[in-house]
């Protein structure tokens, strides 16, 4: 092995035709080697990319033992290639190597280190430090870094101050399960890792900080879904003396800068705002993908006097009939295809049935064409503006099932029919006026839909106990291309109202005092009106990077079942460590 003076004149991926004739010193990992007669070709990789090295007879012997992932330092001259490789940025040049220093050797890597690797994800997670050598992952981490830099700069310019809040903390009510940390000093007592810095950032407002942010780690012990990790990061923001407009302006400025800086994309004036109820009516979802239309349409009135029993019964029982139209799509869905859609809404969304209509040769056909009157059909053609080959999917049920089913069908057909434009179109939507409470069948009580510090709409305060299902809150989400990018709300800033909201979710004043006494107390000493947001950093990076795998944007992720395959965590600890904590294991997972 040669000496390890890591001088380099250039980064490998930056060399171009303009460098021809220059003498360069490069470092990096061997990505590939080929022998061609007495010539040796090596692709040398560093973080910036790959460059081809050529070793002629005079020096080929020096690299005869060099294999993939060896580290080399080479000096040579940049030359124009005879046959350019258009697939790589440095494809027009190569380095004619004059001297080589083998800096380190490497065993055969257990994974294929290439962007289109064929190694399974589990194996790649076990050897994450090798997986990270793939350019695609490095680019994602660099993108993530860039976004955080922009966030810090933009928020700093706006007068926000970054403040760190405790990781060892008391449980915060974001609705998920806490990760607990046993206390050694106070045996039998536990810290909870923060589900978000919610309480602390509100206390910072009470503490007079006025504008706070933090790139904050949050922990939620949930059964993981594909786009979740047990720990994740939020760009967490809170400000005093503002309202929805002030907070939205901060976030919009932030997004505009992030998209400009990382994508060179100017966000047009398209931060649309839609109240939750309208959003559910039009898109059947509180995080609709706004890149395409195909909105849900209410056709209940067409069937006011219908003879068709199914619709008649539904309407009599307070249900609705809604549909989504897909232009020019009738011939793309055969009976079999439509049966699959039927199964999809029956099993996924509890719909009783899916009906469909097709416009074929100026006649309305389909599963319910025979049972509808001519008048009803004519009304539908007119109201929906139907043209030949249009497909209409219809569901009659209670509003919740209708909206959820049609919302999901809208997205599914949006993908199947390629109605969603390519990744460079970004459509943001503020969903406002969320319901304050949701009924939990499991707990048989109302629970906070956002978190219990969210302010109810002033005009709904008197319904807190009499009609909690119809109380709207000042909570909002920002949705981007069908992803919930952030949640936030204007907070309660009066102690009485806070106590009432706790009571409305079944938390007696005593319980509330036991859990949040310090917080309730703080309200007594002049709490400014305040509000904020928590932006899901991983989601944002996923959209910017064009991936739907959250592990692509996290350096050291866990599997979907919350296990770190590389370090094999979580894992057992010594009995001695447990004794100090006063803990005995009563159930041990094999
Ligand atoms: N703490 C909230 C959350 O994590 C965000 C907020 O209300 O600011 O969703």
UniProtKB/TrEMBL annotation:
InterPro entries: Aa-tRNA-synt_II (IPR004364), aa-tRNA-synth_II (IPR006195), aa-tRNA-synth_II/BPL/LPL (IPR045864), Asp-tRNA-ligase_1 (IPR004524), Asp-tRNA-ligase_1_N (IPR047089), Asp/Asn-tRNA-synth_IIb (IPR002312), AspRS_core (IPR047090), GAD-like_sf (IPR004115)
Organism domain of life: Bacteria
E.C. numbers: 6.1.1.12
One Gene Ontology term from the biological process aspect of the record: aspartyl-tRNA aminoacylation
Region annotation Aspartate: where it falls in the sequence: 198-201
Keywords: Aminoacyl-tRNA synthetase, ATP-binding, Cytoplasm, Ligase, Nucleotide-binding, Protein biosynthesis
Oligomeric and partner information: Homodimer.
PANTHER family assigned to the protein according to its UniProt record, in alphabetical order: ASPARTATE--TRNA LIGASE, MITOCHONDRIAL (PTHR22594:SF5), ASPARTYL/LYSYL-TRNA SYNTHETASE (PTHR22594)
Record protein name field: Aspartate--tRNA ligase
Annotated source species: Solobacterium moorei F0204
